[in-house]
Specification:
Elements lengths: L17 E7 L14 E2 L5 E16 L2 E8 L3 E4 L4 E16 L11 E2 L3 H4 L2 H8 L7 H26 L4 H14 L3 H27 L18 E5 L3 E5 L13
Antiparallel strand pairs: 1-6, 1-9, 2-7, 3-4, 3-5, 3-6, 8-9
Length: about 250
């Protein structure tokens, strides 16, 4: 008689990061620039690893406005609170690495919509939501969402470049208000994901120091492939990975 196999436990990617692939939007915005929807993250650092093409990422932060060139092989990353906008320069393709996998997928991102939209959670949710699927209706909604985010972003950038950081700081506060109710869920995802991964390393170090590396007996390999191709992300067309215990089905779009 063959016993049932041992239930598989979630195995996060290194560092409990999230992973996706993006092809930057080539839609032209009101300022003549082609690219994605400006937004920020509240608790997660994000990294762009450029795998092809060229472009830029525009950022707003206490450092002011920056335009960081992107080309194959380059990396750019930005900490929580940094507004970022991916700009298409020609077949730009990136791999996105997200800190605290599970949190970004559960809504750790806020678009730079105009203040009157940010002030009303129902208006914000309606403006941020996309129809299901990857067809023309979804594409049109994603473009409208991008245009609304660019509208708010350009006002923030203009004020920041003029030496007035008030609108930028108020946008950060408005973003924090919008996500406040999600914090208990995020905390649990963090505890079972990134924090648990770090604590597991501590236990492994203890085992090595004690000369009893029993965890090495559980060595194995894993593989995964994208589970949704060509979705409409914040910055571009998005290929996603649904990794149990690590990356949830995306709820932020």
């Amino acid at each position: 008689m063959v016993s049932d196999p041992k239930p598989a436990l979630p195995h996060p990617l290194p560092g409990a990061i999230g992973l996706s692939h993006l092809s930057a939007y080539d839609w032209e915005a009101a300022d003549g620039v082609c690219g994605g929807s400006p937004h920020l993250h509240l608790v997660c650092t994000e990294a762009y690893v450029v795998t092809g093409g060229r472009g830029a990422v525009q950022t707003l932060s206490p450092d002011g406005y920056r335009d960081i060139p992107l080309a194959a092989g380059s990396i750019a990353w930005f900490t929580p609170g940094t507004v970022h906008r991916m700009v298409q320069g020609g077949d730009l393709r990136i791999t996105v690495l997200m800190q605290n996998s599970g949190l970004p997928e559960a809504g750790d991102a806020v678009f730079t919509f105009p203040p009157e939209v940010l002030a009303d959670p129902e208006k914000y949710a309606a403006a941020a939501k996309l129809p299901p699927g990857t067809g023309p209706e979804t594409a049109a909604a994603a473009r409208r969402r991008r245009d609304l985010a660019v509208e708010g972003y350009l006002a923030l950038r203009e004020a920041l470049e003029a030496g007035d950081n008030g609108p930028y700081l108020e946008f950060q506060r408005a973003a924090a208000r919008l996500v406040r109710d999600k914090v208990p869920t995020w905390r649990e995802l963090w505890r079972t994901g990134a924090l648990a991964t770090a604590e597991r390393t501590g236990a492994q170090l203890d085992a090595l120091e004690a000369g009893e590396p029993v965890h090495l007996g559980e060595a194995t390999a894993h593989e995964a492939a994208p589970t949704r191709l060509g979705g409409f992300g914040m910055c571009g067309r998005r290929d996603e990975y649904n990794l149990p215990g690590t990356t949830l089905p995306y709820q932020g779009e």
